[in-house]
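User: For a benchmark we're assembling, each entry needs the component sequences followed by a predicted structure for the full assembly. Here are entry 17's components. Please fill in the structure.
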Amino acid sequence: MVNGQAWMVLTPLATLLGAAILTPIIASAAKRVKPGGGKAVDVFAILGFTAALYTLYRLYLQVYYSGPISMVLDPYLPVKGGVELHVDIFSVYMAMLFCGLGLLASIYSAKYMEGDTGLEYYYLLLLTLVAGMIGVAFAGDFFNLFVSWELMCISSYALVSFRKYRWEPVEAGFKYLMMSSVGSLIILYGISLLYGLTGTVNFRLIRIGLDSIAEKGVPSSLYFLVAFIIAGFGVTASIVPFHTWLPDAHPAAPSPISAMLSGVVIKAGVYGLARSLFTLFNPAAFDYGTVILAFAALTMTVANFTALLQRDIKRLLAYSSIANIGYITAGLGIAAYTLSHYYSVDPGLALRVALLAASGSLFHIFNHAIGKGLLFLCSGCFAHETGTRDISRLEGVGRRMFLTGTSFSLGLFSLAGVPPLSGFWSKLFIILAGLSIAGDGALYTVVAILIFNSILSAAYYLWLMQRIMLRKPTGVAAEAVEAPGSMVIPIIILAALSVIVGLAPGGMITLMEYVGKAMMGGW
Amino acid sequence: MASTAYFAASMALALLGLYALLTSRNMIRAIIGLEVMTSAVNLNILAMGSGEGGVDPLAQSMAFTSIVIGAAVAALALSLVIYAYRHYGSIDLRRLRRLRW
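Assistant: Structure for entry 17:
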């Protein structure tokens, strides 16, 4: 039953959804007071995100000091397991990332979206997007996960095609909708098969059911379910054969939404993948690590080579997002691979390596969220001031927009893995984990591919930085001026975060170990 | 067994829907393909939940939720078709090739 503490789980969701419902009402009230409504909705959305972030922080303290919180709603008792919200440190960590970037995106939007109409719907969708993602992170069963997942997906389709008076968002939005809906249906199909197999949708009970099946040897038909989960979540996580919506959707969306999509929405896909694989399928019994490693190697290689061909700054960043998803899934794959291949040989070593890989990959989720959020917001500033996204016309614009340009370079350096910045640590962890089991050919191959890709991506990051910051500005770039203050503030916050975390990674690394344990330890 | 037949039917329906989605040149037909897939998944949920005493309430509520969500997705997709028609004067998917697919 529900006790007092368990209601805390609902507070962030209730805050965001409540704010979403109130946004159009506030807008129409503000329009009566003042024509156009002024900045009322923007301020209201920012307040909503701040309140939600505060409730998440309370929840984080609770979970950090006294363990996971579970809230079971069982209105119809014959159902096994009931509907459950289960919050552990992994959920709270991802939820804080989602909500924090949502807050920065809404601050940024106040100025960036000034010229657009229908802003109340824009903020409504942004709030429901973040609420859906937090619901995905908090879900303790597939019913909640699916409903939150679709809330997130529908909001993001609408946000991608928000500027519907132009052809590009409509076309990209339609493509995104079609591909991602098929992905969601594949997930639902997998859920229905798991439900048919175990008679429940609750994660914990499915795990018990699958473990009892796997005791007598894993039937190969169960890998069919693993394939459903990887393919379904892989569409949103943009793992390489399922990635083609991303390079169209990210440039077409308004820049704060690109930052949200690239920074956190695809991470929700990674979360769903990691949560459902590691929680449902015991990694020591099932061997899905090899498949994930193969997909990861393919993802980073294809994305990095395609990125070299891009002329549009946001398209280039979108491809680099796919490459970073490759690094993150490589970390997850190393964790699953070592557990399934070495747990029976040397449990201590396997657990240590898996934890190192998992915490590296979770740390990289954080680094990529702030780094790529920063880069998309900066490219939004460039586009806002010059009216173009073409790299050759943006040459030297960083000299005219000093704060934005410097932050942009910091973001590029962080993602390239230049040592004092935060991106260095997470890649180091993943590589170290991959090298710590002596003489394993598969892991060594993946690490070699990862290092090669890191160097390749560092090369085009530096090339991009050199063109944006060091060339002599001409044309539109020469006339650019610094972006307005409310657009620069979120950028500076993100840049400062990547420097601070990079210089003092200790606290973050300790946190990542807890998060990694929560991810692998099941429930 | 009855549920095996339903399972086979839902698999066939899902593949038909996917085929329609991938091959049709008409945006509305592609959406219909998506809807056929949604129905296939709903059928599978109900088939998996059916037992001696009828269908499990959990399966029923999941299928209902999925129907509602499918309607929302279809509405959004059709509204995008309207805007695509305003931009291109056509709902032929081959005309929507300005982005590199």
